[in-house]
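Running this now, will post back.
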Amino acid sequence: MLGLKLATDPRWVNIVESNIEEILTDHAWCEQKAASNAISLVTYNSELEELVTEMLIIAKEELDHLQLVHNLIKSKGLTLGRERKDHYVNELFKFMKKDGSRRDALCDRLLFSAMIEARSCERFKVLSENIKDPELSKFYRDLMISEAGHYTTFLGFAKKYVDNLDIDKRWQEWIDFETSIIVNYGKNETVHG
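Update: finished.
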């Protein structure tokens, strides 16, 4: 479960199935935000050549996912709705350390990113195993694999660029915090909702 302590209740998929247009719209905007996050990591850390190279790959993959979701929306005769706020991600953002060295801030941003990818991967797994639509089941299974790769990339870079932080300890703090907030989610037809 990617280190996550609390699994999503499979009954969440029943909520999702009641409004496929909403989950797909929310998912599309999650992919856009993930691409933007990767680009912002490039912008603020342009001197880290390996990080820049990998973040550009992730940004492109996230944009490709956005296009896949949009194509799926169109193929189902649905409409991409307006951007939604992601309250889960906003709560995680508040937990991110904003002080310390520049490297410490980078490591926490990478852990923040890894946490989002981990939960997205877990949600996509639940969708792939429980949604009745075979096309959506396969779609979410394929994306689950990609999200797992992004999770490990972000976590790996956090460990690589650490200055004086105990990354394993800090990751455990992230997991504990995420556990404390995820209990409030799983009630809406959104990726993290």
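The chain has a mean pLDDT of 94. More later if anyone needs it.
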